[in-house]
Amino acid sequence: MNNKTASKKFRVGILAGLLSVSLAGIGVQSAHAVTELRFAALAGIDGNFKPVIEQWNKENPDIQVKVETLPATIPDIVKSLAASALSGSAPDIFNNLDTYADQLADVGFSEDLVKWFGTNGTIKRAAFNQAFLSSYVPINFPKQVTGLPIAADAIVVFYNKTLFKKAGVAFPKAGWSYDEYLSTCDKLSKWGAKQKPQVWGNSGGPGGGSKSIWQAQYNPFLHSVGTYTYDRNTNTSAIGSPKAVAAWKQLVKPWQNGCIAKYSIVSGKTPPTFQGGQVAMEISVRALLPTYKAGLEAKKMDWDVADMPTIKGETSKYIIGGGSYGLGIAATSKNKEAAWKFVNWFYSTKNGGINTLQASGSLVPPTDEGIASGAWRTLAAPPANVDVFGRAIKNSFIAPKLPGQAGTVLDTVIGDALAEVLLKNVSIEKAFKKAEAKVTAAIKKELDAQ
């Protein structure tokens, strides 16, 4: 463990210890007191957990769980959770995410779950698909596991069949190219410009709004053209390299040609959404399926899913980002045993919450068996083309983890570079070369601190 991380963990531990001592002096609790667990869930999918929590609270009157919603962006999530630990107000349970799990482990926020495996239940490390579980094994602490994946997910194209038909545009086909995707998007937006309310070909990101290009899109794209956001062997980033610049030009095109609504609209408070019938396509994941289904059903619109388009890449033709969101326990939680009891129940095969989520259509279980033959494959349509999800998981690329807080810097500078290109007419070459320099500096800073 490096001195910087040890110091942060020591400060968090001291604050938590002082807080627990001060609370202990308030009075003796009743033997029948109810333990309250706070669960911080990801924005956009927090509603998916409502039936899960209701089920748990009904079965466990002595341990009640209340759901809170995390901030919308990764940098804000990391800052918020880290600050909550230092102030003694961290949630007991939280949605860990493959793209920020290392950042939280680095500041000592996340409990190491290895010590809990096999206790008070049946959860074992071997039960999970190892490719997805590996996202929660920190670079700096390779013997730890700081989260358990809830879903095995990969991006696909959700598309509104009703809008496609009205626009007279052919549905996406398996094996379609990125150029065909751009052409389809352009046709839909040109037709949509004449509609009231206006319709766009694609959204800025999952759920509609965004100020950046989603990592699940740019990481696999960069990988396929032969470059990377982070290479662990050389400890470098190449997001400003010539190959990367060529990729960014393709990724930015939908933002520049009207396929996606103007940046000011997409980054605003009320962006057009797929579930609202204002966007004909959305590159997204199964976790948002219940939201899409409810919204489009209310509007009496039909929809389905299609494979991601392909490119003529140097290393791969696939531009499919894969990953997961998971469950973690805060290292400063004063209710770890109760939290672990909930986690055990959540992953149980009979009545656990993961099966409730699978029945709602929001996930593919993060196990080899669940991916191959889970109950999600037999749910009522839409979507009808469920094999798309299995193919996406098989051909997906999981984002590389950057050391420490360098991941937060990467998330921030990608958004900054996009804003410079769209709002200030800065060239893609200049904007992303500048971004690369900041990521490289952040990586060096983390390595120097070890």
From TrEMBL:
GO terms for cellular component: cell envelope. The keyword Transport applies. It is found in: Cell envelope. InterPro entries: Bact_solute-bd_prot1, SBP, SBP_1_CS. Pfam families: SBP_bac_1 (PF01547). Keywords: Periplasm, Signal, Transport. Its main location: other. GO terms for biological process: transmembrane transport. Belongs to the bacterial solute-binding protein 1 family. This is Unannotated protein. It comes from freshwater metagenome.
